[in-house]
Amino acid sequence: MRRPILAANWKMYKTTAEATAFAAELLALLKERGGGQCEIVVCPPFTALAVLRDALAGSPVELGGQNLYPQKEGAYTGEISGSMLREAGASYAIIGHSERRQYFGESDAFLNEKVKAALSEGLKPILCVGETLAQRRGGEMASVCQGQLAGALAGLDPSICDTLVIAYEPVWAIGTGESAQAADAQETAGLLRQWLREAYGATAADQVRIQYGGSAKPENIAGYLAMPDIDGALIGGAGLKAASYWAMIQAAG
After folding, report:
1. 244 vs 29, 186, 217, 234, 237, CA distance in Å?
2. How far is the C-alpha of 207 from the C-alpha of 190, rounded, in Å?
3. Could you give the CA distance from residue 128 to residue 212 in angstroms, rounded to a whole number?
4. Residue of 97, 99, 106, 121 marked active site
5. Catalytic site residue 87?
6. In a 10 Å sphere around its CB, with 0-12 CB exposed, 13-18 middle and 19+ buried, how is residue 94 labelled?
7. Domains of the chain and any CATH numbers
8. Would you say 163 and 120 are in contact if contact means Cβ atoms under 8 Å apart?
9. Tens of pLDDT along 56-98?
10. Does residue 97 carry a catalytic annotation?
11. CA 159 and chain centroid, separation
12. Distance between CA 167 and CA 189 in Å, rounded?
């Protein structure tokens, strides 16, 4: 049985002081009211990783980076490597978020390099895929999402399924307050798992956890988690407040 995973993507929010306050509040909630059985991952800005590593030491909360550059080191001003993420306390790395694709022009081939780099540094990739509203209305959801998966995982063998997490994030639902219906999210998650079965075999594919992302919040998380191919969520705004994040953790059981 796949263990649910709830990852909070803070994007470009929170100073180190704000991150420390969040950690204290979340730890208090987990201590007083429990944390359920799901895996808890917080993905802060790079500047807050080491601070949270220390603040959350000994707790069940894991850390992830929001991005990484595929080279180990070099003249890449403003970038960060997988080994730097690991040193700062991360065990996960978000790769291919739609905002990276949209604002920074990241291609599937470049994301493939990032996935390989993350794996080589012992980081677990959270690979994001998702269609725009125009693509969905045009009947392209399946081809777009499966195509992004194929491009980002090109050349990788079934062993990746031991650590891979996929986040289905319909672009039209990210930061808009609109969310996909649970049945629609399940349809896409099922198509993604089917691609994995065809590429890697049923046993490997059934290990991969698939998250839903896109205006996921305490009010709708239970519906997504009830779907057979959805194993958690990549959370935006609701993950910025300890109370709402904890409520979603509780809903995951």
Report:
1. 11, 23, 7, 14, 9
2. 13
3. 10
4. 97
5. no
6. buried
7. 5-251 (3.20.20.70)
8. no
9. 999 999 999 999 999 999 999 999 999 999 999 999 999 999 9
10. yes
11. 19
12. 9
Kindly name the residue from 39, 62, 131, 169 that is annotated as catalytic: 169
- Nearest CA-CA partner of 42 in 57, 33, 52: 52
Residue 147: Cβ-neighbour burial (10 angstroms; 0-12, 13-18, 19+)? middle
Report whether 12 contacts 46 (CB < 8 A): no
pLDDT at 195 (0 to 100)? 98
Distance CA 88, CA 51 (A): 9
Query: Residue 129 CB: number of other CB atoms within 10 A?
Result: 28
Mapped onto helix, strand or coil, the DSSP state of residue 92 is strand
pTM over 0.90? The answer is yes
Q: How many residues does the chain have?
A: 253
Residues 6+ apart with CB under 8 A from 135: 141, 144
Using CA atoms, how far residue 226 sits from 85, 97, 154, in Å, is 33, 24, 31
Q: What is the pLDDT of residues 29-59, one digit of tens each?
A: 999 887 778 999 999 999 999 999 999 999 9
Structure tokens at 37: 């059985």
- In angstroms, the first-to-last Cα distance of the chain is 13
In this prediction, residue 34 carries a pLDDT of 75
User: How far is residue 129's CA from residue 100's CA, in Å, rounded to a whole number?
Assistant: 11
Amino acid at 53: R
C-alpha closest to that of 245 among 67, 50, 99, 30? 30
